[in-house]
């Protein structure tokens, strides 16, 4: 498979809206190629040898931080970890000073997760290194959307014309915003459903329908995108009791049994089992939750490869 670069080179990955259709197609085609690399006995290519990135995570992460670190190592690059608790941020050093000092150590790319919406853009306007948004407040989580769409395309062939329902805490979910934007770009018909207190105002302006009763819409959709209840961001009073939430909006064993035969279920993780989903969903044959995690490495390899200019001096990033 040959390497196909996007029409213009990708400078940063801050959000879905900034990506052209060519960028998205290039990320998917490279992710497919890198997924085949990951299936080899030695799942490493020399494509980004000598490059160095930093995982600048100001919020907790298991999947995103680990898969960026793994993606870098599979491309023969280095990914420096950053421990917030052990850093000089604890002494009052600012985000910008932290990033500039790390960049001064000759880092090619900064992967940032931060509680403030706009943190990734803020750094992208001030650093020479490329910046990847790994989640900024309630704003966007573009690599999650890319890996979710990649996983759905792998299973369904296309998102064109598919009905996708995002369920739960839409208001505090950066995944929801990125996924709505990307699924719509790929031709899906998108709807959201949740308690009125967890649906943001004017969400329909993103091009999605809004439902407040799960049982009215759940059994008609092709994709159920369950979302984590973001306890750390929800204000007092916005969340019903766990019991009430599960009864009204949870993907329970009973609801699972009534889904369309071909319907698939995704969730970005981490899951609050017994709240947004019953544990039985993990055994559901059409649950793609672990496929999402596996694909996260290939999609993030593609993102790092394209941002780090891996195509500039390589005929093929994945020689057989
Ligand atoms: N989906 C996701 O962003 O998971 P982490 O918080 O573990 O990175």
UniProtKB/TrEMBL annotation:
Signal peptide: none annotated. Pathway: Pyrimidine metabolism; UMP biosynthesis via de novo pathway; (S)-dihydroorotate from bicarbonate: step 2/3. It catalyses: carbamoyl phosphate + L-aspartate = N-carbamoyl-L-aspartate + phosphate + H(+). Its EC number is 2.1.3.2. InterPro entries: Asp/Orn_carbamoyltranf_P-bd (IPR006132), Asp/Orn_carbamoylTrfase (IPR006130), Asp/Orn_carbamoylTrfase_sf (IPR036901), Asp_carbamoyltransf (IPR002082), Asp_carbamoyltransf_Asp/Orn-bd (IPR006131). GO terms for biological process: 'de novo' pyrimidine nucleobase biosynthetic process; 'de novo' UMP biosynthetic process; amino acid metabolic process. One of its GO terms (molecular function) is aspartate carbamoyltransferase activity. Carbamoyl phosphate binds at residues 63-64, 113, 141, 144, 269-270. GO terms for cellular component: cytosol. Residues 161-307 form the Aspartate/ornithine carbamoyltransferase Asp/Orn-binding domain. It is an enzyme of class 2 (transferase). Pfam families: OTCace, OTCace_N. L-aspartate binds at residues 91, 174, 228. Residues 11-154 form the Aspartate/ornithine carbamoyltransferase carbamoyl-P binding domain. Keywords: Pyrimidine biosynthesis, Transferase. NCBIfam families: asp_carb_tr (TIGR00670), PRK00856.1 (NF002032). Heterododecamer (2C3:3R2) of six catalytic PyrB chains organized as two trimers (C3), and six regulatory PyrI chains organized as three dimers (R2). Catalyzes the condensation of carbamoyl phosphate and aspartate to form carbamoyl aspartate and inorganic phosphate, the committed step in the de novo pyrimidine nucleotide biosynthesis pathway. PANTHER family: ASPARTATE CARBAMOYLTRANSFERASE, ORNITHINE CARBAMOYLTRANSFERASE, MITOCHONDRIAL. Belongs to the aspartate/ornithine carbamoyltransferase superfamily. ATCase family. This is Aspartate carbamoyltransferase.
């Amino acid at each position: 498979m040959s390497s196909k670069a996007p029409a213009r080179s990708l400078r940063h990955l801050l959000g879905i809206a900034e990506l052209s259709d060519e960028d998205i197609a290039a990320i998917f085609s490279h992710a497919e190629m890198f997924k085949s690399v990951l299936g080899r006995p030695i799942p490493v290519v020399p494509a980004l040898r000598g490059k160095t990135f930093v995982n600048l995570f100001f919020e907790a992460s298991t999947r995103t931080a680990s898969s960026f670190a793994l993606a870098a190592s599979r491309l023969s690059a280095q990914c420096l970890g950053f421990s917030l608790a052990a850093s000089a941020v604890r002494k009052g050093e600012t985000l910008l000073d932290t990033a500039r000092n790390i960049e001064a150590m000759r880092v090619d790319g900064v992967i940032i997760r931060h509680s403030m919406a706009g943190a990734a853009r803020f750094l992208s306007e001030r650093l020479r290194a490329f910046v990847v948004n790994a989640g900024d407040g309630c704003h966007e989580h573009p690599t999650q959307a890319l890996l979710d769409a990649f996983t759905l395309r792998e299973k369904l062939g296309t998102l064109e014309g598919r009905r996708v329902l995002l369920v739960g805490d839409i208001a505090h979910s950066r995944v929801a915003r990125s996924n709505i934007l990307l699924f719509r770009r790929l031709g899906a018909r998108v709807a959201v459903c949740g308690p009125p207190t967890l649906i943001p105002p004017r969400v329909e302006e993103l091009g999605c329908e809004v439902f407040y009763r799960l049982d009215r819409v759940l059994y008609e959709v092709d994709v159920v995108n369950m979302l984590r209840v973001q306890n750390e961001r929800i204000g007092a009073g916005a969340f019903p009791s766990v019991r009430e939430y599960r009864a009204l909006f949870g993907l329970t064993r009973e609801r699972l049994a009534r889904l369309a035969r071909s319907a698939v279920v995704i969730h970005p993780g981490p899951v609050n089992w017994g709240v947004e989903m019953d544990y039985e969903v993990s055994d559901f044959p059409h649950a793609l939750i672990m496929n999402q995690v596996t694909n996260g490495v290939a999609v993030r390899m593609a993102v790092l490869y394209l941002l780090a200019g891996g195509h500039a001096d390589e005929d093929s990033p994945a020689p057989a």
